[in-house]
């Protein structure tokens, strides 16, 4: 948003059109109202002594501009934000400060946002580039997550976050938004549109839905730190068996330490979500994996191994021990495309550490 000088307009004289030729560059104008208050402020600021220090001069110039702008009549701005972007809280409006090359919050007031109509209203005392900001990690940490089979080489990946319940369907090498529960349902344009994981991640971020932590997310979000090698191995083993086994968040994952991961898992042959009594607790480390006596409803954490079970080298061999013939067949027939798609989503969301 800026204020420009109107270029010279053509004049028609009889059959002639006279045009003043000027350089093809717009000339910006300062926003100054012709009031006595502004004139007094400008006059007093012009009397300031010179300062040889460049940084102090820049600060003085900025302060002078702010004082001059403070006397201007406020500009009432009304604009409609894109309808395909989710805003989970009132957007933060900021203006660009060219003298210091950063965004500022001052000079903006009476900010109002209607999440039903997407109308944003605010007042500003100057013309400047305007940006809308939203907390990048407001949906983290996740409240829970679940991945369950939806047929051979197909599964449903659900993330319950602070402001949205996101359901992603995976089939072979493609995935799509199957369901998204938020206050205003702004992801309708993505539902049922199949695409590769990297494209879906890009589209979701562009739509204001960020459930994909960046490398610096741990500085802003409380998380359960886990051994990176173990975490990646668990994602791969879950992806390899996702056609036959359901996996879910466990409250005990935060109590078992950095070197171990605790999740819920169960074999699932039907397309219905597992019942609460169907889940078993599994604990995995870089050395072995086992089924625990523990349940989600126990009062304290215990790493006692369940009866009539064996230790296995990893989670994959643990869940496959005692699996039905149909489950074994589905795992053997799992395609690399499906495995790769699920693995990309799990590694991008990092649900084991951000839940």
Question: How would you describe the overall organization of this protein?
Answer:
Residues 38-71 are annotated as: Disordered. Residues 59-69 have a biased composition (Polar residues). GO terms for molecular function: beta-tubulin binding; microtubule binding. InterPro entries: CASC1_C, IC97/Dnai7-like. With 355 residues, the chain is α+β, with helices and mostly antiparallel strands. The protein has two domains: 1-17 and 25-32 and 73-134, no CATH class; 144-349, no CATH class. Helix content is 23%, strand content 25%. It has helices at 36-46, 54-70, 197-206, 228-241, 315-320, 325-332, 336-349; strands spanning 11-13, 16-18, 75-80, 92-97, 102-104, 108-114, 119-124, 130-133, 144-149, 154-160, 165-171, 174-181, 245-248, 260-267, 280-285, 289-291. Strands 12-11-10-9-13-14-15-16 form an eight-stranded antiparallel β-sheet. It has a three-stranded antiparallel β-sheet with strand order 3-7-6, with no helix packed on it. Strands 5-4-8 form a three-stranded antiparallel β-sheet, with no helix packed on it. α1 packs antiparallel against α2 (54-70) and α4 crosses α7. The protein is elongated. The two termini are 40 Å apart.
Question: What features would you highlight for this structure?
Answer:
355 residues, alpha+beta, eight-stranded antiparallel β-sheet, three-stranded antiparallel β-sheet, 7 helices, 16 strands, 23% helix, microtubule binding, beta-tubulin binding, CASC1_C
